[in-house]
Amino acid sequence: MLTRQRRRARAALCFAAGYGTVRLYWACGGRWGWTACDRTRPPARADLATGCDADRVVSLSAVEGRVAVVLCGLLALVAVVALRRRGPLVAWPASVAALALVVLSFPGHLLFELPAAAAGHPTDWRDVGNRLLLLAGGLLFARVAVAARRPGCGHPDAAGPRPVPVPLRGWVYAAAALPLLGFTLPHLLWLGGVPLGVPADVLAAARRDLSPAIAVAVTAGPALGGLLTLGLAHRWGQEFPRWTPWAGRPVPRALVLAPAGVVASALTSYGLIGVWLMSAALAGGRTTWAELGRGWAVAGTELVFLGWGVALGRAVVGYERLTRPRCPMLPRTGGTVWRDPGSGVPPHAHSDSDQRSR
């Protein structure tokens, strides 16, 4: 019977082989499922059926073609190694692969495109489908990385929720406050017609084009995300509350780490790209500090994204370390010896008798 790591590695290998086959098909001239639409602006509805005339594109760039096929081969190699081995030799490459796939999927745009598509706006489903595949592959390789690093003892810690250290609480509260104060609150003011840091003509045009569904998603989504982030520092983030059907049961780590990690990667990459674009525009003379000053709230939103992503990422790392399973070992002189994998502390350093003596 396959171990957990081998099952996850096999799923990651299937993704790498399948997605690599698609990229090879595109590199060899096939265009089904590929899009030539500009991803930086919404396409015209008439161009969506043909992928902005994707069939007329004779050859792809090196990055879109050969390089993408080679990278898929490297993903398959990581998955093959994970079928036989565990430890840092697998965990680190799988972690890098997961981060790269998540960033390339650019989930920050997905957070806006999917609600817009549900509201009836023109959507390039070829591009969205491709990025959803990349996001799914990133999650698969993240699970491989976690399984490769985790010892195979299979005994969860029975001590219940663990106390949350102060630094982790600080990062969690920062990750919860930034979207509420830096995004939801200003957008509520803008929807109400208050031109806070936004030119009046730009605000009026945005209010005309904004549908009610997108307005709700823009304002309520970040606030809800901030509320859920608090679970990383509270008991209900480790153990289901009493009012749920699973009262008292441990919260699966993947249920917390997967979405929080994806959102942290999306926000950080989105913020970095926004800051880079502003810096490039300033350096190229396409904008000035005076223009950025007139729209300081819009420019500041990029910094909010970046700070939010960094804070959430640090909170996710702290939660992963906090909830990492400890493996029971045979005691030397009574009591159960617990070892925290990844701590580097010898097994005999944390026996029950030692804990009571402290």
TrEMBL record:
Q: Where is the composition biased (Basic and acidic residues)?
A: 349-358
Keyword tags: Membrane, Transmembrane, Transmembrane helix
Q: Does the keyword Transmembrane apply?
A: yes
Which residue ranges does UniProt annotate as crossing the membrane? 12-34, 65-83, 90-112, 132-149, 170-190, 210-233, 254-276, 296-317
- Membrane among the record's keywords? yes
Q: Which residues form a coiled coil?
A: none
| Residue ranges, annotated region (Disordered) | 334-358
Q: What is this protein called?
A: Uncharacterized protein
What is the species of this protein?
Micromonospora siamensis
